[in-house]
Amino acid sequence: MKLLLMTLIVTKVAFSTPEPGIGEVKAKFVEAGIEWNSIDKVNWPEYPYKPEVEFRIMHSENEIYLQFHVKENGARAMFGYDAGSRPYTDDCVEFFMIPSDRDQSYYNLEMNCVGHGTFDYGPLGGPRYRCGDEIISQIRRESTLGSEAFGTLEGPQEWTLTIAIPKRLYAQTDLDLTNFSGRTVKANFYKCGDDTAVPHFLSWNPVGSPKPNFHTPQYFGEIRFE
To answer: What is the pLDDT of residues 86-138, one digit of tens each?
Structure first.
């Protein structure tokens, strides 16, 4: 069965400074009318739970901006730090992308519901590098659930995570990668929770692997940067 290829256009916006505050980023999402996209593909029937998850994305000359909005039953945040964390075991949102057309390395950003996580890169099947705090600390983020690990919460939960990623961080494997404008790249967006009360694995573009696995660039969709 041929899987659907999702596509979207990433609107380009302008700020008065190269790295605006998260408050400015949140306001710009609204001001620019950036649309939400659903992360709603249940790829593995044995994991049917589907919280309500949506994301939106835009970019400026210097950065990529993401905003995730989640409604779910319960929430888990065991990690209140980046390096050494395992965000995918918490309630987690993820952004995977192949930024270069000269290098097939893909980058995976994984953040739990309080905005802590990992930023890794490398090719499929090859050595992958996990960035340390000196890199991850350059990724600005803010969650409506705060930034401290709280363990688990029960009952209906709703949270929004806003993220600003400097584009220079994607030049780890392609030093000539300085401009995203006008380019189409492969990417996917995910929501998971491996060790939550009800494990779940949702994606934006469908994934055709036989069991849960997001490290599948062959199933990425396409995003085009204005």
So the answer is: 999 999 999 999 999 888 899 999 999 999 999 999 999 888 999 999 999 99
CA distances from 138 to 19, 63, 133, 134, 200 (A): 10, 11, 8, 7, 29
Asked if residue 144 belongs to a domain, the reply is yes
**How many distinct structural domains can be found in the chain?**
1
DSSP 15-75: -SSSS--HHHHHHHHHHTTPPPEE--EE--TT-----EEEEEEEE-SSEEEEEEEEEEEEE
How far is residue 17's CA from residue 217's CA, in Å, rounded to a whole number? 33
CATH number of the structural domain spanning residue 104: 2.60.40.1190
Q: What angle do CA 108, 114, 115 make, to 5 degrees?
A: 35
The model's pTM: 0.97
